Amino acid sequence: MNVIRFTDLIAQGKVAGQRVFIRADLNVPQDDAGQITEDTRIRASIPCIEQALKAGAAVMVTSHLGRPTEGEFKPEDSLAPVAKRMGELMGREVKLVANWVDGVAVAPGELVLLENCRVNKGEKKNNEELAKKMAALCDIFVNDAFGTAHRAEGTTYGIAQFAKIACAGPLLAAEIDAISKALSAPKRPLVAIVAGSKVSTKLTILKALSEKVDGLIVGGGIANTFMLAAGLKIGKSLAEPDLVAEAQAVIDAMKARGAAVPIPVDVVVAKRFAADAEATVKDAADVAEDDLILDIGPKTAALLAEQLKAAGTIVWNGPVGVFEFDAFAHGTETIARAIAASSAFSIAGGGDTLAAIAKYGIEKDVGYISTGGGAFLEILEGKTLPAFEILSRRAQDAQAS
Ligand code: ADP
Ligand code: MG
């Protein structure tokens, strides 16, 4: 995807003395007292801000936080805790500015944080008047918030339409590059793992990927529905029998392209859904009426690991078992370690997938870990994200002029 990159603008000397508006993703989790419990997103946003300051820009940064009601600012909506933490991390004071839509005083070399952008009336629905006002605040708009790239809002889309220059920040650019590498021009074979609890939440992903990938590995509750489609009995396992026809359609689509959806040959079952339930390995054909399948079996895991080790590109979303319970985590751990050991370029995303990656400590061995939950899933669905669309359109316009 062709977008203007902020780092290129800096290298071209186009940022010094300019007013730069950065849309970051600073939506961090907080406890009941408002204390930040996890600051990864703030840390991840700092490189772009530092680059802008170093280049001599007057820097404005904003983000949403939580789900405020537009037009009704409440103390708990405030970015004040974020300003404080950012200040600590950057070793400088970070001034917080409220009611900023009609004008912001900021000089080159200065940094201000603009209050929660979702408090502004019209942000969610991308009101044009609001977008134009925000665009008028800056010379350069930088989108560095991949997590909201699937939403066409005032600070993710409208401002990019009207700002003099609209570009991608380093975080967003890295996501764009990793996604292109994995899905637009992948090194083959391209193997995707789509697992987790439910087919219904990932049906569009399964369909979209079945047109692209050389191997489609299913796992978790999703695999159970595919096992039903393959005529296997799954006892009391989590599955969606009404989606068996859809699962069959995915299997057929893959078959028609000479590719396959491997169905588990063995599974780990229990009689109840609990961490201390007794785990029993069974052949996929031997699942009893009162069994719950909670993981893929060791033979299946070993077969899949072989396939992953031979892949050119791997896309991973979803744990293949109830990895939160150690007795049913073997499959997910085997997959995680196979991805880590594979020479393939790998990209992974999804809330529970990230938790599994952290549990097995393979962060450094995954090619790219996507931080945007919903946005990442929409990419896998084959959608063009609004934030990408507008930035690439602005890049085309800039090239043409
Ligand atoms: P992600 O957040 O990475 O997109 P999902 O939310 O789709 O993943 O699925 C993760 C959840 O699926 C985990 O909480 C896991 O325990 C559950 N899960 C995996 N396999 C099974 C299974 N066989 N039965 C029930 N739940 C499962
Ligand atoms: Mg999840």
Describe the structure.
With 401 residues, this protein is of the alpha/beta class. The protein starts with 5 loop residues before the first helix and ends with a helix. The protein contains 14 helices and 14 strands. α5 packs parallel to α14. The strands form 3 sheets. A 6-stranded parallel β-sheet has the order 3-4-2-1-5-6, sandwiched between helices. The model has no long low-confidence stretch (mean pLDDT 97). The structure holds adenosine-5'-diphosphate and magnesium ion.
Give the key terms.
six-stranded parallel sheet; binds adenosine-5'-diphosphate; alpha/beta; binds magnesium ion; 401 residues; 14 helices; five-stranded parallel sheet
Please specify the SSE layout and strand pairing.
Elements: H1 6-11, E1 19-23, H2 40-54, E2 58-62, H3 80-90, E3 95-97, E4 111-114, H4 128-136, E5 140-143, H5 154-162, E6 165-168, H6 170-184, E7 190-194, H7 199-210, E8 215-218, H8 220-229, H9 244-256, E9 266-270, E10 280-283, E11 292-296, H10 298-309, E12 313-317, H11 330-341, E13 345-348, H12 351-360, E14 368-369, H13 373-380, H14 386-400
Parallel strand pairs: 1-2, 1-5, 2-4, 3-4, 5-6, 7-8, 7-12, 12-13, 13-14
Antiparallel strand pairs: 9-10, 9-11
Helix pairs in contact: 2-3, 4-5, 5-14, 7-9, 8-9, 10-11
